[in-house]
Amino acid sequence: MTPITEVEGHRVALSNLEKVLHPATGFTKGELLHYYATTADALLPHLRGRPVSFLRYPDGPGGQQFFAKNVPPGTPDWVTTAEVRRMEGPSRMVLVQDLASLMWASNLVTEFHTPQWTVHSPDEADRIVFDLDPGPPASVVECCEVACWLRERLAADGIEVLAKTSGSKGLHLLGAVRGASSERVTEYAKELAVEAEQALPRRVVHRMTRSLRPGKVFVDWSQNAARKTTAAPYTLRARTEPTVSAPVTWTEVEECSSPGRLVFRAPDIAPRLQDYGDLLAPLLDPAAARPLP
Fold first, then answer.
1. Side-chain-side CA neighbours of residue 102 (13 Å)
2. Which terminus of the chain has a smaller tally of CB atoms within 10 A, N or C?
């Protein structure tokens, strides 16, 4: 029988709690649900108001993985949804607004991915994002070097960026912006990626072409497009270990000397939140948003 628990007045079914989802450490679905429950205060503000795309991995990283953008079948009627414009036409997507919705969605076993805009202002981007993706033998160490260059370049335009691990092998930079469409933010991000390649030609590539990427960091500017999404802060990733897209300090970025220094797993996050709080909290302050130059 599937256990039923009550979360904030809503009945939530939690299934297969003993199932191992991250085989390298034996991390179970019950542990995954506990992780999201205890990280909710930090995670939820970064999800609220944003249509969530689910990258589901119900049988772990070695099983089938698939994106679910539309409201999944069987979604409880108390889960908030919103109609969203997409290239193929309007669709209805989930908004994870509260703990009950988070626990219901977590039971699906999913990564959480969000766009750089909210359903309240879909024509205006409120985030700029750079996904720094290393081509082997480059690693997150080289990503950190590129991140520091981008940080200074964006600061020259009055935009403060913060960093988080991708939860895989790279690094994400995010900044709060205002007054521009996703299209304009994408153009600006591409301009800076090109500048980074010109300034660090042995380190950076701004094009996705696979043959150009070995040993370099691909500065992916395209995730600013309105149709694209990025792994949300604090989401678990579908990897053999329960790695997390974890916010990091700039000191950690500057001092990163080996890839393992910036790998964080689910058990690491509660102590980090206790020590640092939410390092990405400034993104949630409307007063911190800056216009593009």
1. 26
2. N
**Tokens 């999944």 belong to residue:** 72
Extract long-range pairs of 195-200: CB within 8 Å, 24+ residues apart: 195/153, 196/146, 196/149, 196/150, 196/153, 199/149, 200/145, 200/146, 200/149
Residue 208 phi, psi (nearest 5): -80, -10
Secondary structure string (H, E, C) spanning the chain: CCCEEEECCEEEECCCCCCEEECCCCEEHHHHHHHHHHHHHHHHHHHCCCEEEEEECCCCCCCCCEEECCCCCCCCCCCCEEEECCCCCCEEEEECCCHHHHHHHHCCCEEEEECCCCCCCCCCEEEEEEEEEECCCCCHHHHHHHHHHHHHHHHHCCCCEEEEECCCCCEEEEEEEEEECHHHHHHHHHHHHHHHHHHCCCCEECCCCHHHCCCCEEEECHHHCCCCCEECCCCECCCCCCEECCEECHHHHHCCCCHHHHCCEHHHHHHHHHHHCCCCHHHHCHHHCEECC
> CA–CA separation, 4 vs 11, rounded Å?
6
Q: Are 265 and 242 in contact (CB under 8 A)?
A: yes
Q: Which two tokens stand for residue 240?
A: 């053999």
- Angle, CA 46 vertex, CA 123 and CA 92 arms, to 5°: 55
Full-model pTM? 0.96
Distances (CA, A) of 49 to 23, 190, 236, 292: 33, 26, 20, 23
Cβ–Cβ under 8 Å, residues 216 and 208:
no
Phi and psi angles of residue 135, each rounded to the nearest 5 degrees, phi first: -95, 120
pLDDT digits (tens, 9 = 90+) for 155-198: 999 999 999 999 999 999 999 999 999 999 999 999 999 999 99
